[in-house]
């Protein structure tokens, strides 16, 4: 290949030629590469023009490589194989930063990370941040687990599933002896709210129907310690009750509470293949049935 031809030949030309030569069909190659047959034919013609030689014999029922085409195919296959080894080596060194504010949903998080890492060789780095949505917008994480309804139009959000809610109170609270609580009763008690990433707050009720007293905190740890100190009660997705998060709190079943949506937020980057693969793995895991044991409310 002379210098002139080399400047005109791109990787797409090699991939198209290899697919046609291997499958012996323009139609099958176009389907495999997800391009139109006219576009594939033009690409082959561009490659042959650049090299100044016919690579494929189109005269027979099946497309065959010419003598020159077969010699060129041997080199193309080695080049593509070496490139794939290079891509794999880079992917093993790459990582995707998954942001979260508190308590990743289970078993979804574990299933998603394992499926994605096995399929891609890319490592997932878990990054805890008090405001995961801001972390995405500032580029501190690549993608983040978000709970509740996201109003920002700066990010793209994929809904995964809804979590059930439970009430949380101090073991010293007058509510600690209750087995269950109705959603309508929650506003009668001081409500501890995580203003940065909480899923339940005054905004969860119509105007004028929310709690009279609100204790504001700015992260999950402050929220948890405030509930344990009996400054008020909290409402949280039921993932918390499976984690034994604090010896000073008790979980109470909550009737008639609206579900809490869980999604993934990320900046729209349509060419980011790694990010797209992670979202696909996340959606697959979300579609799997929840294990029966996950739905139980333990006595705490």
TrEMBL record:
Gene3D superfamilies on file: Periplasmic binding protein-like II, Winged helix-like DNA-binding domain superfamily/Winged helix DNA-binding domain
Presence of the UniProt keyword Transcription in the record: yes
Stretches assigned to the HTH lysR-type domain: 9-66
Key words of the record: Activator, DNA-binding, Transcription, Transcription regulation
GO terms, molecular function: DNA binding; DNA-binding transcription factor activity
Entry superkingdom: Bacteria
GO cellular component terms attached to this protein's record: protein-DNA complex
Family, similarity comment: Belongs to the LysR transcriptional regulatory family.
Protein role: Required for the induction the katG gene for catalase. Involved in the response to hydrogen peroxide.
Name used for this protein in its record: Probable hydrogen peroxide-inducible genes activator
């Amino acid at each position: 290949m002379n210098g002139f031809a080399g400047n005109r030949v791109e990787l797409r030309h090699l991939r198209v030629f290899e697919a046609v030569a291997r499958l012996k069909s323009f139609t099958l190659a176009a389907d495999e590469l997800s391009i139109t047959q006219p576009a594939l034919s033009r690409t082959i013609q561009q490659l042959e023009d650049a090299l100044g030689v016919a690579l494929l014999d189109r005269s027979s029922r099946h497309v065959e490589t010419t003598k020159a085409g077969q010699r060129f195919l041997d080199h193309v296959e080695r080049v593509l194989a070496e490139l794939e080894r290079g891509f794999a080596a880079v992917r093993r060194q790459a990582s995707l930063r998954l942001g979260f504010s508190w308590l990743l949903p289970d078993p979804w998080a574990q299933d998603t990370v394992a499926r994605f890492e096995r399929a891609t060789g890319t490592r997932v780095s878990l990054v805890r941040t008090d405001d995961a949505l801001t972390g995405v917008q500032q580029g501190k994480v690549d993608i983040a687990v978000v709970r509740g309804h996201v109003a920002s139009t700066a990010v793209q959000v994929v809904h995964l599933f809804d979590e059930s809610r439970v009430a949380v109170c101090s073991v010293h609270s007058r509510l600690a002896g209750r087995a269950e609580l109705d959603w309508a009763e929650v506003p009668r008690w001081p409500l501890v709210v995580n203003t940065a990433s909480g899923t339940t707050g005054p905004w969860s009720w119509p105007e004028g129907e929310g709690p009279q007293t609100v204790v504001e905190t700015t992260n999950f740890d402050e929220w948890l310690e405030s509930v344990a100190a009996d400054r008020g009660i909290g409402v949280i997705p039921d993932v918390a009750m499976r984690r034994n998060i604090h010896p000073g709190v008790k979980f109470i079943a909550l009737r008639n509470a609206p579900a809490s949506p869980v999604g993934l937020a990320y900046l729209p980057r349509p060419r980011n293949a790694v990010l797209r693969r992670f979202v696909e793995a996340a959606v697959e895991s979300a579609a799997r049935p929840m294990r029966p044991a996950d739905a139980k409310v333990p006595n705490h």
